[in-house]
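#struct-help
A.M.: can someone run this one for me? Single chain, 303 residues.
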Amino acid sequence: MPGQSRFPLPLIAAFFALYVIWGSTYLVIRIGVEYWPPLMLGGIRFVIAGSLMYAFLRWRGVPAPTWAQWKAAGAIGVLLLSCGNGAVTVAEHTGVTSGVAALAVATVPLFTLLCGYFWGARNTRLEWAGIALGMIGIGMLNLGSNLQSSPLGAGLLLFAAAAWAFGSVWSKHLPLPQGAMASAAEMLVGGVVLLIGSALSGERLEAVPPLEGWLALIYLIGFGSIIAFNAYMYLLKHVRPAAATSYAYVNPAVAVLLGIVFVGETIGLEEALAMVVIISAVVLIGLPQWRKPKPKAVAQETA
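D.P.: on it. Structure tokens below:
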């Protein structure tokens, strides 16, 4: 029984989805924006994923969100998906590599801490140590690479990280729908906003995407949205914000490894050492959550 409370299978699976699946989406987004306009790609991705989830949940008898819940979910969907993911997609379309995008997202835990303090949250020394160590690892990884970023892309990525962190912390204080319905509603609203932005910015699909473009879209819908995003929302309700956003330290390492396997990039000693530091940071951030059970009072505000 005690072992189950410390290492529940859903918690392990959720962290795996964030670390591995979300780490791969940076490369898939880069592939996707070669054939789709960026805002259109994100909008189609989230509208389809949200519609599928919403229809499935309603078929299973899950009640539809109330108006108050739609407003709460819409606000979080705009912050996380329209602003957060949308800005990352546009940045990669401007020429920022998937590795640089993953590195920039490593600033999310810092923004999360700042937002958490706004609501009176306090973090453990291990979490602070993990964040500091993680930023050192990110710096090492960046110094040992040849990744390049435009000023516009860098600004977009910083904005994306701040919006994602604020939305993540704020979500714990809003009347969101129960369970996966929150993710479905957020994706529907966030996706519609992205499609509106696509139309207003004059995006057009120049030609029908080839098979590679469609496979990228399907992967982002199924794995990047339905599976990984729901895992993230689950963690936001069951672990500390710093632990939920610790994926930001692992994703760059996953992005680099995928570049080696699929693009033929090489990795030097600096990158290898940086990955060791990054994984160590993830362990430090996760220790407070894994070492003591979650208080019942916090568990009750779940979805």
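A.M.: thanks! The two ends are 23 Å apart (CA to CA).
D.P.: also worth noting: Residues 23-299 form one domain.
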